[in-house]
Amino acid sequence: MALEVLVLRGLGLGDLLTAVPALRALRRAFPGGRITLAAPAVYRELMARTGAVDDLVDVSGPGPVPYDGPDVAVNLHGRGPRSVGALRRTRPGRLLSHEVDGGPPWREAVHEVRRWCDLLEWYGLPADPGDLSLGTSDLRGPVVVHPGAASPARRWPSGRFALVAAALRRTGADVVVTGGPAETALAREVAGLAGLPAASVLAGRTGPAGLADLVGGARLVVCGDTGVAHLAAAYRTPSVVLFGPTSPALWGPPVGGPHVTLWAGRTGDPHAAAPDPGLLEIETPEVVDAALELLKVRA
């Protein structure tokens, strides 16, 4: 009977993509095992593309987890009592987690990808933080402008995104505006201000797998510190990523890739109800220049 491995990561798109190297490390460590990921069901198709996940159980947040008796449970969700407790209630043969049962201490100042690779290496399971790839962009698709983010603190103003979209359209590029279902109004606002046709608004029309396909074929992505930035990293699609309250050293794309990170150098509350002051220090011409330079280099 195959060894059963349960992994908890009940979070959003960017969070899941930062855990891909750790998931692949588990696949290498347990080549004959069955790996079940506890995560939101909407990401089932996308996570199957990693080659590291056999099944997915629908979990949002730290639990509860509808699973019983895994041989190994791995906490890639966090270190708090809720996620640890949820995995303990599945009655695992062994629990791998920060700060419990001899697990490693939690470190704040570490990149999110590295955090989970380090956790597994603590337990003797080698992991490669660079193992992020879902494919390679063919650079023949549209320019993707993604103005949304999970919290207002990480949302650059829509009017500035519109100016960037308009500037990119003037180069002759096809520009589309993406977002989740709750970001449709924001995407329409950006497209309207930029003078883009209604058909350019793809927000709410793609789903995670469709969005991944779009980013994977794009010429360029312009976005904030959000899940789409991690998709661009996964496909090595050129991107301009705007950081505000959080340093790109903690959540940014791999160094040396076709990516430009813009950050004013100040940190703040990533869950604040208004755009971070540091994010607002990033001016429109700086973003336009970075985007045009990437388009020129990749051409």
* Arithmetic mean pLDDT: 97
Oligomer: single chain
- Can you give the helix content as a percent range? 25-40%
* Strand order within the widest beta sheet: 3-2-1-4-5
How many strand units?
A: 10
Structural class: alpha/beta
Distance between the termini: 52 Å
* Low-confidence segments: none
Shape: elongated
Continuous helix count = 12
* Rg, Å, rounded: 20 Å
The fraction of residues in strands falls at 5-15%
The major pleated sheet works out as: 5 strands, parallel
**What is the succession of H and E elements?**
EHHEHEEHEHEHEHHEHEHEHH
Describe this structure in words.
35% of the residues lie in helices and 15% in strands. It has 299 residues and is an alpha/beta fold. It has a 5-stranded parallel β-sheet, with helices on both faces. A 5-stranded parallel β-sheet has the order 7-6-8-9-10, sandwiched between helices. Helix 3 links the parallel strand 2 (34-39) and strand 3. The longest helix has 15 residues, at 284-298.
Quick structural overview:
The chain is an alpha/beta fold and 299 residues long.
Task: Map the helices and strands.
Blueprint: E1 4-8, H1 13-18, H2 20-29, E2 34-39, H3 44-48, E3 55-58, E4 72-75, H4 81-88, E5 94-96, H5 112-122, E6 143-146, H6 158-169, E7 175-177, H7 184-194, H8 207-216, E8 220-224, H9 227-235, E9 239-243, H10 248-251, E10 259-263, H11 277-280, H12 284-298
Parallel strand pairs: 1-2, 1-4, 2-3, 4-5, 6-7, 6-8, 8-9, 9-10
Helix pairs in contact: 2-5, 6-7, 6-12, 8-9
Overview features:
single chain, 299 residues, alpha/beta, 5-stranded parallel β-sheet, elongated
